[in-house]
TrEMBL record:
Origin species: Nocardioides bizhenqiangii
Protein name: Gfo/Idh/MocA family oxidoreductase
Biological classification of the source: Bacteria, Bacillati, Actinomycetota, Actinomycetes, Propionibacteriales
Tagged with keyword Oxidoreductase: yes
Source superkingdom: Bacteria
SUPFAM superfamilies: Glyceraldehyde-3-phosphate dehydrogenase-like, C-terminal domain, NAD(P)-binding Rossmann-fold domains
Amino acid sequence: MTTNNTRLSVAMIGHAFMGAAHSQAWRTAPHFFDLPMDVRMALVCGQDGKRAAAAAERLGWADSAPDWRIAIERDDIDLVDICTPGHTHAEVAIAALDAGKHVLCEKPLANTVDEAERMAAAAERAAAHGIRAMVGFTYRRVPAVALARRLVEEGRIGEIRHVRAQYLQDWITDPEAPLSWRLEKDKAGSGALGDIGAHIIDLAQHIVGDQILAVVGHTETFVKERPLAAEHAGLSGTASAERGQVTVDDAAVFLARFGKGAVGVFEATRFATGRKNTIRVEVSGSAGSVAFDFDDMNVLEFYDATEPAETAGFRRIPVTEPGHPYVGAWWPAGHWLGYEHGFTHQVVDLVHAIADGADPAPSFLDGLQVQRVLSAVETSSDTRSWQEIPR
Ligand code: SOE
């Protein structure tokens, strides 16, 4: 249901895994949430015109084009949604913002701090004209994560002491798994660190409402050479006879100090055999703890240290009540949500921010800060030393 005040025509760039997830969000949001704008899925762009046309048909876009520049040139496009690999983000986002188009950009914001700084500067210039930019750290919008943030904000767990965050996958444990673009530094920027480590950095900072000030870490590439991909490969794909160098990390681990004194332990890996997409964040405070596990994503664990010791204990809160963040728009209590709902919530929050003339979160500045943490972890690993995060 929309109130149809103003039209928002969207062009999406890229149509693979993330493109499909974003498409379902744009399709679904107006049907479940009262949006202040009339969203139109106007255009999808991809390098291969035929594949882009097929994606338009399959994913619900009105039109397709073989070049992202067409989205920038078209006057009827109000928002550009970037779902392509990291090396394209800066060029597309800056062109779109400079052309007066709102931008939603997949994470990590960029491949380097320099690119992220230029993107944040473009977002600041555009904001002066009412143009908004958001980075897609989608897991913030899982209701149980939003509830964790709310409880921390309300002081329910007191002063934050510890953050434990893990993002565990295993899709390249097999040394013969092909070398997809996610394993190439010039396309992806980094490996597990930027692809999934970026999510837990954002999640941790978001939940505790604080920023990482310094890190010490180690990155590792376990399998240094792999077969090249025989065909365009995302998380799967077939291998060719030729081999190539893996130029990114397979795993990254680091310790962190937060601004208000908390300490953090982070682990991001594509080699956690048996773990497909496990995200765990646990925060311990002076008055309690919260713990989130994406494998049980509709539940938030909460420990209230102010309860009498004889009955205190971690409680599983099913985050499915209408009063829980985002949940009221969906199903009656007890009917669980999934991976895709976070993307819908992301679109809903972005459309509201645009209509309200407010800065959406996470902003490009937030994306830049995460980029600085990623870069500091790499420098720390290279130099074997603690690294401060520039403010
Ligand atoms: C692959 O690791 C990937 O698709 C990431 O790129 C996404 O950001 C994550 O949500 C799921 O896994």
